[in-house]
Design goal:
Helices cover about 0% and strands about 40% of the residues. The protein has no helices and seven strands. This is Protein Churchill.
Length: about 140
């Protein structure tokens, strides 16, 4: 049985690509090593996680990405930034749609990220000088 390595992977035209429609944009699972990797608390407002990019399934090139269709809106006190950062520089194939949110809840800043390429992550940071979650009770 022959094993395929990621670096020598070829996508044949007869093979159906793995696509994930999000807000009418089809994201390509064949271009990433792992779909929606868990990034812990690393929330990226912009950029691309190139370590997870195996190469474009359409043109087979592994190059930098173009950031397109960037939009920012505020909804109920929450800032939502979306863009198609993961557009192949060579053939303009859409690899993923990136969504980043920022909000302030009580005494905390909350961040989330969701992207097929960059992964999923969330983080909460106190806006107070001393984080109340880190305080120890003195009895």
């Amino acid at each position: 049985m022959r094993q395929l390595s990621v670096s020598s992977r070829e996508i044949s035209s007869s093979r159906k690509r793995r696509t994930f429609p999000v807000n009418s944009v089809a994201m390509c699972g064949d271009c990433v090593e792992k779909e929606y990797p868990n990034r812990g608390n690393t929330c990226l407002e912009n950029g691309s996680f190139l370590l997870n990019f195996t190469g474009c399934a359409v043109c087979s090139k592994r190059d930098f990405m173009l950031i397109t269709n960037k939009s920012s809106k505020e909804e109920d006190g929450e800032e939502i930034v979306t863009y198609d950062p993961d557009l192949c520089k060579n053939c303009h194939h859409v690899i993923a749609r990136h969504e980043y949110t920022f909000s302030i809840m009580d005494e905390f800043q909350e961040y989330t990220m969701l992207c097929l390429l960059c992964g999923k992550a969330e983080d909460t940071i106190s806006i107070l000088p001393d984080d109340p979650r880190q305080m120890t009770l003195l009895f």
